[in-house]
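Letters spell out the chain; the tokens describe the backbone. To illustrate:

===
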Amino acid sequence: MKRTSQIFTISDSENFSKKLLQWAQQFREVVYLDSNKFKNNYHSLKAVLAVDAFTLVQTDDHNSFEQLNEYKRNTNDWLFGYLSYDLKNDTEKLSSKNFDGLEFPELLFFQPKKIFFIEENEVRFEYLGVCDEEILSDFEEINETILVETIQESKIEIKNRISFDEYCNGFDKMIYHIQRGDIYEANYCMEFYAENMQIDPASIFWNLNEISEPPFACFGKFNQHFVISASPERYLKKQGTKVISQPIKGTSKRGNSELEDQELKEALANNAKEQSENVMIVDLVRNDLSKTATKGSVQVEELFGIHSFKQVHQMISTIVSEVSEDQNPIEIIKTTFPMGSMTGAPKLSAMKIIEEVEQTKRGLYSGALGYFTPENDFDFNVIIRSILYNQQKKYVSFSVGSAITIQANVADEYKECLLKANAMKKVLEQC
């Protein structure tokens, strides 16, 4: 699909991005991705926004990847959207019967009429021919947008879906399955939620982004469903014939001083339990990538790398593979989804046990949001450290989890969950 491209100079990319996202709220479909200037070997654009579906595909968990594959082949264009965790039911003989207060579609992608690629001092508009005469007027309208932050009229009361005692009961079940040999690691999650709430998703996104500044931040609006994410984790990226996965396993809080911060960072780097969790997932990812890789191309580029963010230190490994030039990109995703960092190992057994032990359907949490390019490349994050909102039902939710192994201690794992919940809880209670 042919697009018209035009570049404009901007003096302040951050201010322009805020105006752009506010302007974008007039559309039913919106995806905004921001790297927060994070630099690594696989850095993508600083920020990109896509709005206004020209075409769209939305599915449940039945034949979803096949429908996505057909849709992508027919459009041959940029596609933005998400994959929910419960597409596991399409890749395996599984089901999802737990409580779902959010009711997101399992998969949704759209072909945007309008895309904006933002760098430091310029923005590139790429519009489909059906609307390319609007480029100049849209640029002027965005620049004239007056930023408004909505004040929350009522206090948001965050509730925990399960009590500490219930969490301990679930933890014991996980340990039981580990001792039986059913699994050797599982990601155990719990939900926080608020009911009957009207929030301003765009304002909350900027507040969350400011206190976290993650490399895979995203905002998604899909009619009445919103994603507000401060994700630090990449699920999967395809760049030419190279595929990159960067799972996170291992978390530590930041210190109150430079010395304490360095000590906490070194302690995480040398923590045998965290290394054990991380290497289990690295092995799982290596196996997943091998299903589509050219022979002998799967490599671990970085093992136990410690990366620092505003809220936490994280242990991140990087696994890469090479694929043939004609490899179907949807097949690469299908054979690696859901990501191992959010399931455990062995993956199938872990997913079955997670469904039994957890009380909330994960939905988009533990899923992925990102894009496909016309050249069959893609980049997707992991939906963690994220607030999800059903505007029609006035239901707000966020979930957190940690990896359970035989070495795990229930008090420590619960404490790690609360640490991960801090940023989302703070922005919701202060909005």
Observations:
- Residues 255 and 261 are 4 Å apart (CA to CA).
- The two ends are 41 Å apart (CA to CA).
- The mean pLDDT is 95.
